[in-house]
TrEMBL record:
Keyword Coiled coil on entry: no
Record key words, sorted: Polyamine biosynthesis
Annotated Pfam families: Spermine_synth (PF01564)
Superkingdom: Bacteria
Protein name: Spermidine synthase
PANTHER family: BLR2883 PROTEIN (PTHR43317:SF3), THERMOSPERMINE SYNTHASE ACAULIS5 (PTHR43317)
Keyword Ion transport among UniProt keywords: no
């Protein structure tokens, strides 16, 4: 089997950490420099698809739906949101790392069907937390797939996003009857309780990293 070859690196703003983009035939991997294993892989995106599908099915019948995807990653959540929503929808994707956007505009983009080229897509470069604070009642759905979930790997600042203050900001950024969907690599009962404490009704769904029904078990919270 062919080996992965590095085709790009990208610095995470405000950190001494870098991401690596690797390719093996038509498979791509994003890894954190100095850390073992994949952060993301194009073979394993079932749970990223489910994040958007579960959230968007709740608001898909709303005319002019406006949704936020926190974390572009490999583009699969964005692509799934676009597939689930109407032609009059707007999907804002917030991505902290400019290099990740460039990868999705370049060699990585075809893996998810080049969702950045969809005219309904809007790219916001920067911290998704700042976008939440700036847009009260701005979104019908918010999907967060940032830094591996509540137990982050790359940025200490991401702890704020999953804190009571961050969750309250997300709640305020939702329109009436909106939905907040949060992806995580694993279970986190303390996070479930945090969601409830800010006044959200919570449903937890277990999904597989690879469809159908294969791969690691990931967790999605749906809060409204």
């Amino acid at each position: 089997m062919a080996k992965f070859e590095e085709i790009g690196t990208a610095s995470i703003p405000g950190q001494g950490t870098q991401l690596r983009l690797l390719q093996r035939n038509d498979e791509f991997s994003i890894r954190i420099v100095g850390a073992p294993g994949d952060l993301m892989n194009t073979r394993l995106h079932g749970s990223e698809d489910a994040l958007a599908e579960l959230a968007c099915e709740r608001i898909a019948d709303r005319p002019g739906a406006r949704v936020l995807v926190g974390g572009l990653g490999m583009g699969f959540t964005l692509a799934a949101a676009l597939a689930a929503l109407g032609e009059d929808a707007v999907v804002v994707v917030a991505e902290l790392v400019p290099g990740v956007v460039e990868w999705n505009r370049g060699p990585l983009g075809a893996a998810a069907g080049r969702p950045l080229d969809d005219p309904r897509t809007r790219v916001s470069l920067g911290d998704v937390g700042e976008l939440l604070r700036a847009e009260p009642s701005g979104f019908d759905a918010i999907m967060l797939d940032v830094d591996n979930g509540p137990e982050g790997l790359t940025r200490r600042e991401n702890d704020w996003l999953y804190s009571p203050r961050g969750l309250a900001a997300a709640q305020e950024a939702l329109r009436p009857d909106g939905v907040l969907a949060v992806w995580s690599a694993g279970q986190d009962p303390a996070f479930t309780e945090r969601l409830r404490r800010v006044g959200l009704l919570v449903e937890e769904v277990t999904v597989r990293a690879h469809r159908p029904g294969k791969g690691a078990k990931h967790r999605i919270w749906l809060a409204s």
